[in-house]
Specification:
The structure holds two protein chains of two kinds.
Chain A lengths: L2 H31 L6 H19 L1 H24 L5 H23 L4 E3 L9 E3 L2 E3 L2 H18 L1 H11 L1 H6 L4 H28 L1 E3 L6 H12 L3 H23 L7 H19 L17
Antiparallel strand pairs in A: 1-4, 2-3
Helix pairs in contact in A: 1-5, 1-6, 1-8, 1-9, 1-10, 2-3, 2-4, 2-8, 2-9, 3-4, 3-8, 5-6, 5-10, 6-8, 9-10, 9-11, 10-11
Chain B lengths: L1 H11 L12 H22 L4 H13 L2 H26 L7 H13 L8 H30 L3 H23 L30 H18 L1 H11 L1 H6 L4 H26 L18 H11 L4 H21 L11 H13 L4 H24 L8
Classes of the chains: A mainly alpha, B mainly alpha.
Chain lengths: 297, 386
C-alpha cells in the first residue's frame, strides 16, 4: 500500500463519512428532544432525488437547498404526527421509508430510465482542489458541524431545553417549555441535516440517483447514534469508522487482483456496523421519555 | 442497561396493535387505506396522470375476474408470511424488520432441492423445511445479539438484510448457478414444484402453506400458554416478568417463528411462482426484493392479527397485481411503483392513532401551525423564547 493508496482510501472514506455524520448528528438532536426517527433512510433517499431535480433547474447550490428543504419537510411531517397527533414513531418511520422507496422509483421512471438517473456535470457541486486530491466542500461541514452541535447541546439554554424535553417533559412543561413545539423544531432540523446528507450523495458525491442510493445509510447512521450515546463527537468518530470501511470496500473492489469476491466486500460495512454496535452497547443511556408522545395530564 | 433499551422499543410501539381511538380496528385500517389511496391520487395528479382512470384499471386488474383474483392471491401468498414475521415479533414487543433478509435466505435454501432427486410430496416438504430452517437461523443471530449484547433489533435486522442480499447474490452466481444459464440459479425440479391452481396464472398451492401457517400462528398466540406469554411480554414486559414469564424465552420463540415464516415466504416464491422456479442472480433479484418490506405494511393494516393479515394481504396483493395491469393501461400508464407509494402513505396514516379525530380538529391544528409560522417569520425569535 503506497502513500498514494492511503491518500485515496482516506479521500473515499471522508466522502463516505459525510452523509452518515450529517444524518447521525441530526438524529442526535431529534433523539435528545425525545423523538426517534427511523425514517432517516427514506429522508436520505427522497432528498437525494429531489435535490437532483433542484440542481438541474438551478445549479448545485439550489439542489442542496432543495434537498435540505425536502428533509426538513419530512422531518416536520414526522414530528407533527408524533407530537400533536400522538403517533407511533416506529410505524411512522417505516411508512416514510416505504413511501420513499416508491416515490423515488416512481420519479426515476418519470425522468426517463427506471432505476437510475445521472446528474449532469453542470449540476454537480464542484470539488475543492486540495493536496489530497479533489474533496467535496461538504466534508468540511460534516467535520465542523458535530462540534457546533456538541457546544449547542452542552452549553446553550436552548440545548438544555431540548434535553429537558427528552428527559423530563412534565417538568419542562411546568417550567414553561412548549414540549411539542421544541420537539417539532428539533426533528425538523434533524430532517434538514439528513436532507443535506441525501442531497450531498446525489449532487456532490456520486453524481447519480438510483432507487437504492441510500443503501442502508439511514440505518447505519442510527447505529452511529446508538454507538455515540447521543454525543455528536462520538457520532462523528463512528461515522468516520463506517466511512473508512465503506472506503475500504470501494478500494478493494478497484484492486486488479480481486482477492475477495465483490459481494463479500460489499457486505463489509454492514458487518462492521454490527460488530461495532454490539461492542459498544452497555454504557449507552438514552433520554427517559424517548419515543413517548407527551400528553399533559 | 439493555433493560431500559428494551422499554424504549416497547414504548415506541405503543398503539401499534391496539386501537387507541375506541374505534373498531377494521374501520381504522379502512380509513388509513382510503387516506393512502387519496395521497397516491394526488401524486398521480401532480405527475400528470388521471388518478380516477388509473385506480379503475388497478382495481379491475386486481379483482375484475377469476384470472385477476387468482393473480392477486398469488401476490398475497408470500406477503401473508412476511407480514406474520413482523407481527409475531411486534406482539412480543420487538420490531423485527428482518423479513427481507430471512426471505432471501429461505429462498436460497429451497434451491438446494434441485440437487436432490426427490419424489413428489417429499420434494415440496424438504424444500419448505430447508427454507424454514434457513429463515430461522438468519433471525437467530439478531435475537442472540439483542439478548446478550442489547443490540437493537432495528439495526441488526437491517444490517442482516443487506448481508443476506449480498450473500445470496454470491451464492446465486457462484455456488447455485445454473451451468447453462449464467443469469439464474438452478431451477426447482418439476417434481418438487407446487402445482399451479388456476391455469395461466401464477397462483399455486403454496397459498395453502401461507394460510395454514397464519392459522397456526393464530392458534399458537391465542390458544396456547406460550402464545399468551408472548403477547403478555409484548404488552408489558415488566408485569409479565413479575407474572413469572421468561421474557428471553418468549423473545427467542417469536424471533424463531418469525424467521420460519419469512423463510417459508422465500420458498413459496421459488417453489410456487411460475415460470422460473429459480432466483435470478442479476443485481436486482426482482422476485424477492421488497416482499419483506411490503409485508410490514400488510401487518400494520392487518392490525398484526393473523386473520386481519390474510385480508390485508389480499388487498395489497391486489394492489400489486392490479398495478401490473395499470402500468400498461393504454393512454394512462402509471408505473407500478405507485403501489409502493400508496403502501407507504397507508402505513403513515396507520401510525396516527387519532386519525379519526384529526379531521374535525385539523382546522385547529392548522391554525396553530400557521400562527407558529407567522411568529417565526415576523421576527427571528431565538428558540429559547418559543
Amino acid at each position: 500500500m503506497s502513500l498514494n493508496d492511503i491518500l485515496s482510501l482516506l479521500r473515499i472514506s471522508l466522502h463516505a463519512m459525510v452523509p452518515l455524520a450529517l444524518t447521525a448528528v441530526g438524529e442526535i438532536i431529534g433523539e435528545t428532544a425525545g423523538l426517534f426517527n427511523i425514517g432517516l433512510e427514506g429522508i436520505l433517499l427522497m432528498s437525494a432525488f429531489v435535490a437532483v431535480l433542484g440542481a438541474k433547474a438551478g445549479g448545485p447550490a439550489v439542489g442542496l437547498l432543495v434537498g435540505m428543504g425536502t428533509g426538513a419537510f419530512v422531518g416536520f411531517l414526522f414530528s407533527v404526527i408524533n407530537t400533536y397527533w400522538k403517533g407511533t414513531q416506529m410505524v411512522t418511520g417505516i411508512g416514510i421509508n416505504l413511501f420513499a422507496m416508491g416515490f423515488v422509483a416512481f420519479g426515476l421512471i418519470q425522468l426517463g430510465a427506471p432505476g437510475f438517473h445521472d446528474v449532469p456535470k453542470a449540476a454537480e457541486l464542484a470539488k475543492l482542489r486540495t493536496p489530497m486530491g479533489a474533496m467535496s466542500p461538504l466534508i468540511l461541514v460534516a467535520l465542523v458541524l458535530p462540534f457546533i452541535v456538541f457546544w449547542f447541546l452542552k452549553r446553550t439554554r436552548a440545548g438544555l431545553m431540548l434535553k429537558a424535553a427528552g428527559e423530563a417533559p412534565e417538568a419542562a412543561d411546568v417550567a414553561g417549555i412548549n414540549i411539542n413545539r421544541i420537539r417539532l423544531y428539533a426533528t425538523t432540523f434533524g430532517g434538514l441535516l439528513a436532507g443535506l446528507g441525501g442531497a450531498y450523495m446525489s449532487v456532490a458525491w456520486m453524481g447519480l440517483v438510483t432507487k437504492d442510493l441510500s443503501a442502508g445509510r439511514g440505518f447505519i447512521s442510527l447505529a452511529c447514534v446508538v454507538f455515540s450515546g447521543l454525543n455528536p463527537l462520538l457520532a462523528l468518530l463512528a461515522a468516520f469508522i463506517f466511512g473508512l470501511f465503506q472506503g475500504l470496500a470501494e478500494w478493494v473492489k478497484t484492486l486488479p487482483s480481486k482477492p475477495i469476491p465483490a459481494q463479500f466486500v460489499s457486505m463489509l460495512p454492514y458487518i462492521i456496523t454490527l460488530l461495532v454496535v454490539s461492542g459498544a452497547i452497555g454504557r449507552v443511556r438514552f433520554p427517559k421519555s424517548l419515543g413517548e408522545p407527551y400528553k399533559r395530564e | 442497561m439493555s433493560e431500559s433499551k428494551r422499554s424504549i422499543e416497547s414504548r415506541l410501539l405503543r398503539g401499534a396493535h391496539r386501537t387507541l381511538t375506541g374505534l373498531s380496528p377494521a374501520v381504522e385500517s379502512l380509513l388509513a387505506a382510503v387516506v393512502g389511496l387519496l395521497i397516491g391520487a394526488i401524486l398521480m395528479y401532480i405527475w400528470g396522470f388521471n388518478p380516477w382512470k388509473a385506480y379503475i384499471a388497478l382495481f379491475k386488474g386486481a379483482y375484475g375476474g377469476s384470472y385477476e383474483i387468482a393473480s392477486s392471491l398469488a401476490r398475497a401468498t408470500p406477503l401473508i408470511l412476511t407480514a406474520l414475521t413482523f407481527s409475531i415479533c411486534l406482539r412480543s414487543g420487538m420490531f423485527n424488520i428482518g423479513a427481507e433478509g430471512q426471505l432471501f435466505m429461505g429462498a436460497t435454501a429451497s434451491i438446494l432441492v434441485a440437487y436432490m432427486a426427490l419424489p413428489a410430496p417429499l420434494g415440496q416438504i424438504v424444500g419448505l423445511i430447508l427454507a424454514a430452517i434457513a429463515g430461522a437461523a438468519w433471525s437467530l443471530v439478531p435475537a442472540f445479539l439483542k439478548l446478550t449484547r442489547g443490540v437493537s433489533e432495528v439495526i441488526s435486522t437491517i444490517m442482516f438484510n443487506w448481508i443476506a442480499r449480498w450473500l445470496v447474490l454470491y451464492l446465486a452466481i457462484f455456488i447455485l448457478g445454473d451451468p447453462n444459464r449464467a443469469e439464474k440459479t438452478l431451477s426447482i425440479p418439476l417434481a418438487a414444484r407446487f402445482p399451479v391452481m388456476v391455469r395461466g396464472t401464477d397462483l399455486s398451492y403454496t397459498i395453502f402453506v401461507s394460510v395454514a401457517f397464519a392459522l397456526l400462528i393464530y392458534f399458537v398466540l391465542w390458544h396456547t400458554t406460550v402464545g399468551y406469554e408472548v403477547r403478555a411480554a409484548g404488552l408489558n414486559p415488566t408485569a409479565a416478568r413479575y407474572g413469572g414469564i421468561r421474557n428471553k424465552r418468549t423473545m427467542f420463540l417469536s424471533f424463531i417463528l418469525g424467521g420460519i415464516a419469512a423463510g417459508l415466504a422465500g420458498a413459496t416464491i421459488t417453489m410456487g411462482q411460475p415460470p422460473t422456479y429459480a432466483i435470478y442472480g442479476g443485481a436486482a433479484m426482482p422476485q424477492l426484493t421488497n416482499v419483506g418490506f411490503d409485508g410490514m405494511a400488510v401487518a400494520m393494516v392487518g392490525r398484526n392479527h393473523p386473520i386481519g393479515i390474510i385480508i390485508a394481504a389480499v388487498f395489497f396483493g391486489g394492489l400489486n397485481a392490479g398495478g401490473r395491469v395499470m402500468q400498461f393501461y393504454g393512454s394512462n400508464p402509471v408505473p407500478l411503483e405507485l403501489v409502493r407509494v400508496v403502501m407507504g402513505a397507508i402505513v403513515l396514516a396507520m401510525s396516527i392513532p387519532e386519525l379519526i379525530r384529526i379531521f374535525p380538529s385539523v382546522k385547529k391544528q392548522g391554525q396553530e401551525l400557521v400562527g407558529l409560522f407567522r411568529r417565526l417569520t415576523r421576527k427571528p425569535v431565538k428558540e429559547e423564547q418559543a
